[in-house]
Fold each of these.
Amino acid sequence: DVQLVESGGGSVQPGGSLRLSCKVSRVTFSSACLGWFRQAPDKEREAVASISKDDVPTYATSVQGRFRISEDTAKNTLDLQMDSLTPDDTAMYYCAAGHLIMCTAFAIPSFPDRGQGTQVTVS
């Protein structure tokens, strides 16, 4: 079974930075779409960023220019560098994996596999 384990969440002041990491197991990077989504209390899940082997990374408008997604196939990790954080970025962040074709729709919250999440608090 696919395993996704997030780490790196925490509390930070507005304007600060955090780097999330997801340890990815039993996923073939060359045929997968990997991404991050988040969910704040009383809000719907929101796709944040996605990446695949052949595609340019895709970002939600709300994080464009501030977040950067990257994957390291040698270490089997998916990272999310988050800069210039604001209170609106406060949420539980989840790493998710789906088939390569799923990158087109950017429907990351619907991906079949996801981790347990890591909390990010900006205040």
Amino acid sequence: EVQLVESGGGMVQPGGSLRLSCEAAGFIFSSYAMSWVRQAPGKGPEWVSVINSAGGTIYYADSVKGRFTVSRDNAKNTLYLQMNSLNPEDTALYYCARTDWFTFYYDYAGQGTQVTVSS
């Protein structure tokens, strides 16, 4: 059974930072690309970033480029998202997703972790 469990969310002031983690189980983590996706209240899902299986190729949405950094530790089956210079528009439920590198579609996603940016 594929399991993806996110953690690290919380409330932070504008300009602050958070580091999200996603622990994976039930599949060969090192064989899959992974994505971070977010969904703000009342809006549809927004793709944030994707990293290939080896961690050597990464893409970011323009809205987070230069502020967010995705990484992975295949030995620990864990995906990370370092978020800096957060602003209220980053408020959303963030979840990780197992991703097909060639289509960028994802087949499994976690329950998500809430990030709230507010003063």
Amino acid sequence: VQLVESGGGLVQPGGSLRLSCAASGFVFMDYAIGWFRQAPGKGLEWVGGVNWDGNRRDYAESMKGPFTNSRDNRKNTVYLQINNLESEDSAVYYCAKSKRGFKASVTGDDYDHWGQGTQVTVSS
């Protein structure tokens, strides 16, 4: 099983990014995928996730506006669109494979494989 994030980088406040998570080594369409982030000196924070068919998208309460999950099961890829970025959004963003398909859990223990992360830095 492999998950590879991409799309991070340096962006100015108010800017946008689309992160990608390319998956392989498992039946992609059977599992939910979650997104987490970790800022320097802080713990792992759940951002949101998308269920197996993309019809259920969940977000942390504070991230419902600027963040949008989606997935393309033909490409084995999940996307996280982040708009109106703020400095507080600077973090390493990780995607993770859920142990289940119907919902992306908020709990890290419900995920069994993680990507290596992609750095997002918001700065002027």
